Amino acid sequence: CETYHHVFHVKEASYTRLCRTKKILTVNGQFPGPTLYAYGGDKLVVKVYNIAQENVTIHWHGVKQPRNPWSDGSEYITQCAIQPGSSFIYTITFTDEEGTLWWHAHNDYTRATVHGAIVVYPRHGTSYPFPKPSGEVVIVLGEWWNKDVNTVLEKALETGGEPNASDSFTINGQPGDLYPCSKPGTFRMLVEHGKTYLLRVVNAAMDDGLFFSIADHLLTLVGSDGSYTKALTTDYILISPGETMDLLLKANQSPRNLYYMAARAFSYQPVNNIDNTTTTAIVQYKSHYTQRSTNPLLPTLPFYNDTEAASKFSFSIRSPAGMHWPISCPQRFDQRMIIAVAVNELECQLSGSCEGPNGTRLSASLNNISFVNPPIDILEAYYKGINGVFGASFPSRPLQYYNFTAEYQPLELLKPRLGTMVRVLEYGATVEIVFQGTSLVRAESHPMHLHGFSFYVVGWGFGNFNEKKDPLGYNLEDPPLKNTIGVPRNGWVAVRFTANNPGVWLLHCHLERHLIWGMNTVFLVKDGEGPGTKLLPPPPHMPPC
Ligand code: C2O
Ligand code: CU
Asked: Most-buried pick from 120, 291, 470, 485 (CB within 10 A)?
């Protein structure tokens, strides 16, 4: 296992998209940012210099960072921001992660443009559990705002309304042919007929799940969230913000056509409230034949609100359990948590009325507690024993049982409590979490993401979780190992993991607007008894608050 060193300069750069030019925050001037490469078990050391005008932190999404939350990069949770003019060194330690992961800024709305892929090749001396592809390409799905993203965030927080939707979706930073002024930049993937390619797809979009497909070609899923999966062949995928999907593409169609790969929003909102345009890139066969047409073929994607299509794909994913791939899914658990996931309303603080429903301010919660950022990061407060920064009473059950998915909800539930609450877990405890979607304010799908762990997705369903009946249908044989899972709209999903990573770890919805509204909580995993089970000491220079 090797250690590789990288330098990230966080700085502004000028980019032209959708007919206009603006400054965006980047790493090393690149959008999307640089791809990091490693082999299983390697270590990366990334020195981040902030030479921009705003704060930043960088999170290594899906890297478990054993015993070392100090390098996890979540602002207010594991560190304070790297301020303009200062730097911080992150140590990224890979253990069993293989496949595609990604990194992104983890403060305010900075991750809109500050993100990139992480490619983890099989550990030296091992190989993919599928035939080695002839080539591979990273596909980062994202969003582009004509406005400055800080302005979008500030306006949303000030007015209490929805943040403005982006002006386009992007593939590798490019909106693609179907958006204005975008044709020359459209990303092209060149393939040779008869060969197989590995697509490493990351959804770095802020606020939308995306359906993704390639015209006339089937895709075979072989990995997701830094773990291999059983091969799953499909004509489209659904990918939520935070998720990654490794797909094999067989270039077996007529080399005389051009083909679009395309992505479009999966959303609860009606078409006129979202960007329903399709972002595209071109798959082109290297050949000496003349092309039949210069118009690429467009794939058919599921409709924007097709929850069935979304769930059908997401819950078909399986881990490659078997002789060579032992699975460590806990067969029993020490504690089951039921976490109600909701969008809420708070009183307006403006003199007039806010832009949320009924003139209120939008907010979001887990078990009816809307997370409030503490003045110093929770990890520091825990490590140094500083009192009064957080409370340890995040409830293991919703504060009130009700019909979570009914059309009308009790008014008192619309308003969450505000607080900085963590849940303390004993080292080594086996935990089941059932995320229960609700129809408070609005029913939508929430991609829930846990830092510091991967979890097995053992069950799901529409409607309310039934604690007696539903566990009987769990899949404990070959559940997929994920770090982000979409809770189906008006449904629930159950995950299991072992709390064997001491430290402070964020759990949140990966829709950025929900995160800023408080749809998060923190697991504080205590030290174990034996060697190698204790939180590491902090590096010498943590950024001050
Ligand atoms: Cu990819 Cu807390 O995030
Ligand atoms: Cu959400």
From this structure: 485
Q: Are residues 362 and 459 in the same domain?
A: yes
Q: In angstroms, what is the span from residue 267 Cα to ligand 1's centroid?
A: 20
Residue 330 inside a domain? The answer is: no
Q: Does 409 lie in the same domain as 260?
A: no
CATH number at residue 213: 2.60.40.420
203 in ligand 1 pocket by Cβ < 6 Å? no
User: Which residue minimizes the CA distance to atom 3 of ligand 1?
Assistant: 61
**Ligand nearest the Cα atom of residue 442:** 2
pLDDT tens readout for residues 224-276: 999 999 999 999 999 999 999 999 999 999 999 999 999 999 988 776 677 77
Q: Which domain-ending residue is among 125, 160, 195?
A: 125
Instruction: Say which amino acid occupies 193.
Output: H
Same domain for 158 and 101: no
506 lines ligand 1 (CB under 6 A): yes
Evaluate whether residue 192 is within a structural domain: yes
Round to whole Å and give the CA distance between 77 and 66: 16
Please, are residues 58 and 28 in contact by the beta-carbon 8 Å criterion? no
Instruction: Find the ligand nearest to 507 CA.
Output: 1
- In the prediction, which pLDDT does 443 show? 83
Cβ–Cβ under 8 Å, residues 400 and 431? no
Atom index in ligand 1 nearest the CA of residue 104 equals: 1
Total count of domains within the chain: 3
Q: Are 226 and 483 in contact (CB under 8 A)?
A: yes
C-beta of 111 in contact with ligand 1 (< 6 A): no
Residue 284 and residue 248 share a domain? yes
* CA distance linking residue 336 with residue 167, whole number of Å: 41
**Pocket of ligand 1 contains residue 495 by CB under 6 Å:** no
Residue 545 is assigned to a structural domain of this protein: no
pLDDT of 323 reads 60
CA of 254 to the centre of ligand 2 (A): 41
Q: What per-residue confidence (pLDDT) applies to 100?
A: 98
Report DSSP letters for 307-348, one per residue.
HHHHHHHHTT-----BTTB-----SS-SEEEEEEEEEEEE--
- Looking at the structure, tell me whether residues 239 and 215 fall in a common domain: yes
In this prediction, residue 326 carries a pLDDT of 67
Query: Which domain, by its residues, includes 14?
Result: 1-125
Regarding whether 358 and 230 lie in a shared domain, the answer is no
Helix H or strand E segment including 264: strand 258-266
Residues β-bridged to residue 342: 365
Give the position, in ligand 1's atom list, of the atom nearest the Cα of 451: 2
Q: How far is the CA of 510 from the centre of ligand 1 (A)?
A: 6
Which among 458, 526, 429, 516 is positioned nearest to 155, based on CA atoms? Answer: 516
Whether residues 75 and 175 share a domain: the answer is no
Q: Which residues of the chain have a pLDDT value below 50? A: none
Distance 188 CA to ligand 2 centre (A): 33
Say if residue 416 is in the same domain as residue 286: no
